[in-house]
Write a structure and sequence with these properties.
By secondary structure, this protein is an alpha+beta fold. It is about 45% helix and about 20% strand. The strands form 2 sheets. A 5-stranded antiparallel beta sheet has the order 1-4-9-6-7, with no helix packed on it. A 5-stranded antiparallel beta sheet has the order 2-3-10-5-8, with no helix packed on it.
């Protein structure tokens, strides 16, 4: 059977040309679609391929807002408006135009535009932040609280930007009081925001000024913002500022904070703070404060700190002393008090053995703190021997007294 060319003849030649043209057009559309997905919004190639594509226009304009934080030129705004008509379900157009209305000092129009964008994309964080700022500036605290709640749900994916935005708002005169009043209406949210700010580089004074009386009373809770703030300041080696924040968070008196060793009489249950006793509870052993004494059960298998506390001793000479009531065990493991600089080369300043012998005794040692050592770590440390050998002792009346000339 003879085959015939389906495109033979003048009419069929025209049909073939149409198909070829359609194929070329389809290929072009595929290339342009792929380019839109792969190329950056400001790529020169994308400008040539699809200069008016809504995706390119909106992505480029959004990027310009974030980078420039200023007015967009008229041509860009016209392109955004055209993109909004071509892609009416894209919230970025409402974000861009609402932001521009804020810059044009049309807050009422801006809020309406931004809320329309928020309905299209409830997870658009920039819209939430712009609305939050406007609500705070105009005293609409209920609406502001709603924005805070939404941002709190999104905080796991935007912790740093939200903390930074809140830090700026809490220190800006126009929004400082409004932020404080809004957070006070939601204690759980206030705690979350304060924890985020405590992790950031927010000054302690700003945190205390922002926190409500209830939040300040709650600051010392183990899950609250106070321990986070203190730990961050210690990690930054800002020991004096950290100790002042510690005193304020835990409502301590001057007599308590001025003592070389906090709770040297071993009377209170330790809180989570570097300047309080930190006690071991695990495979190393157990340390507990009971009846004005430190009860130690050291298992002798591993080496490590059984009890420790960060000190801020002034340069000078000191006398360290403690009472020990040996319980059971032998002297195979080494159990001793150590004092070392908390920063720099962490130079050792003292090692005092704890003797597990019969009878109660008091042991003392002299220690010199150099000027290059602004903070010191006091630790009761156990060092294991060749074979595990458990030791139980009770330690009382741990003291550190300045000798003549100390702290000068």
């Amino acid at each position: 059977m003879m085959r015939t060319d389906p495109f033979a003849g003048p009419r069929n030649v025209v049909s073939a040309g149409v198909l070829v043209l359609a194929g070329v057009l389809l290929s072009w559309l595929c290339v342009r679609s792929a380019a839109l997905q792969l190329l950056a919004p400001d790529a020169p190639a994308l400008e040539r391929l699809a200069p008016r594509n809504p995706e390119r226009v909106l992505a480029a304009a959004t990027l310009a807002i974030v980078q420039r934080r200023g007015l967009l030129d008229a041509a860009t705004l016209d392109a955004v408006r055209a993109a909004a008509r071509a892609a009416p379900l894209d919230a970025r157009a409402f974000l861009i135009l609402g932001h521009q209305q804020l810059l044009d000092r049309r807050p009422r129009d801006a809020v309406a535009t931004l809320r329309a964008g928020q309905r299209l994309d409830p997870r658009q964080r920039l819209i939430h932040l712009l609305l939050l700022d406007q609500y705070l500036r105009t005293g609409r605290y209920g609406a502001a609280a709603e924005q805070f709640s939404v941002l709190a749900r999104l905080v796991s994916t935007a912790q740093a930007p939200i903390a930074q935005a809140m830090a700026v708002m809490s220190q800006a005169p126009a929004t400082r009081d409004a932020v404080r009043r809004t957070l006070a209406t939601n204690p759980r949210l206030e705690r979350d925001v304060l924890v985020a700010l405590a992790r950031a580089d927010t000054p302690p004074a700003s945190l205390f000024a922002l926190a409500s009386p209830a939040a300040i009373a709650d600051a010392g809770d183990a899950e609250s913002w106070g321990p986070v703030l203190i730990a961050r300041l210690v990690a930054q080696q800002r020991y004096g500022v950290a100790r002042a924040a510690w005193a304020r968070v835990y409502w301590l008196t001057a007599a308590q904070t001025d003592a070389p060793i906090f709770d040297a009489a071993l009377r209170t249950v330790p809180k989570r703070s570097a300047f309080d006793w930190s006690l071991a509870a695990g495979s190393l052993g157990a340390a507990d404060i009971r009846d004005g004494a430190l009860a130690i059960d050291y298992y002798g298998r591993d080496s490590g700190d059984l009890a420790s506390q960060l000190l801020v001793l002034k340069p000078g000479r000191y006398r360290f002393a403690f009472g020990v009531d040996p319980g059971s065990g032998d002297t195979a493991p080494r159990l001793f008090w150590s004092l070392a600089c908390a920063s720099g080369d962490k130079a050792k300043l003292m090692d005092v053995p704890v003797l597990a012998a019969a009878g109660q005794r008091r042991i003392a040692a002299e220690v010199v703190v150099p000027a290059s050592c602004p903070a010191q770590m006091l630790a009761l440390r156990g060092e294991a021997g060749d074979l595990p050998a458990p030791v139980s002792v009770t330690i009382r009346d741990v003291t550190m007294h300045a000798r003549p000339g100390a702290g000068s």
